[in-house]
Amino acid sequence: MQIGKPLRTVIVEPLKLPVSDPTGEPISDPPDRLPEPNAPQAELEQVPTETMSIPDYISPVVGYRVWTWNVLGLKSLCGMSWHPGQSLAARCKASTVVGTLIDRAKAAGDSHTAPQENCTCGIYAIKTLHRFRSAGYERYGIYGEVYLWGTIVEHELGYRAQFAYPKTFVLQPGAMPFTLAEIWPRLQALTLFGSDIFVLGNGETISLWSKSSGFGAPLSHTAVE
Ligand SMILES: [Zn+2]
Predict the structure, then answer these.
(1) Which DSSP letter does residue 113 get?
(2) Sign of the four-CA dihedral 107, 108, 113, 117
(3) Distance from Cα 13 to the centre of ligand 1, integer Å
(4) How close is the Cα of 59 to the center of ligand 1, in Å?
(5) Rounded alpha-carbon distances, angstroms, from residue 107 to 31, 59, 91, 112, 224
(6) Of 17, 113, 131, 179, which is least packed with CB atoms within 10 Å of its CB?
(7) Predicted model pTM
(8) pLDDT in tens, 197-215
C-alpha cells in the first residue's frame, strides 16, 4: 500500500479492546515482558521496556484495507492470515525469533518491536475511504475498516500499526470468487469475526449481517460509519 511519508509515532491503548482472545481475556501487549526470576541481570537489561509508554489515545484508530477471501480464509494481500477473535500482531521480518524470553533478549540487538518509524514493518491501512477508493484498492477483493492500536506510525496517507482487527467488511458481488451456491458457508465463516458485513450495490453499502441483528438487518443500518 502507498501511504506516503511517516509523520509521527503514537501509542494507542484502547480502554476496551475490539477483540478478546479465545479464553475471553483481553489481549494486551505481548505477555512476556516480565523478567524471569532466575535470569542473569545482564540479559534482562536488553528486554524492551516500552510497556511504560503513556498512551496518546485511548480508543482504536480506524483505517481502511483490503483482503483476499477464498477457501483458505481471510488474508492480507501479502498472504498473512487473519483469524476470528484474534488480533493480528505485526512482526518485523527482523524480529521473528520465537522461544524463551532469553532467546528474544539475545536477538534484541538485530530486531525490534513492529512498527518502527524508520522501517517498513507494521499492519498497513489507508486513512480515508476516499483515498482508498481513488487508489483502486477495493478491486482486490473484500475491503473494509480495521481497528488499529498499540504503537502506530502515522503516515501522510495511512498508518502502520502494531495490532489490528476488522471492524467492517464490504463485499462487492463482482469481486467475489464464488458462485451463489458456494457463498453461504463462506459468509457464515466470515460472520465469526463479529464484524459488520455490508454488500455494495449500485454504489450503496447495504447491511448484510451485523453482530446485533444477524442476517437481514433493517435497511436503516445501511451506512458505513
Ligand atoms: Zn521493522
Answers:
(1) P
(2) negative
(3) 21
(4) 24
(5) 17, 32, 14, 9, 43
(6) 179
(7) 0.75
(8) 998 888 788 998 998 888 8
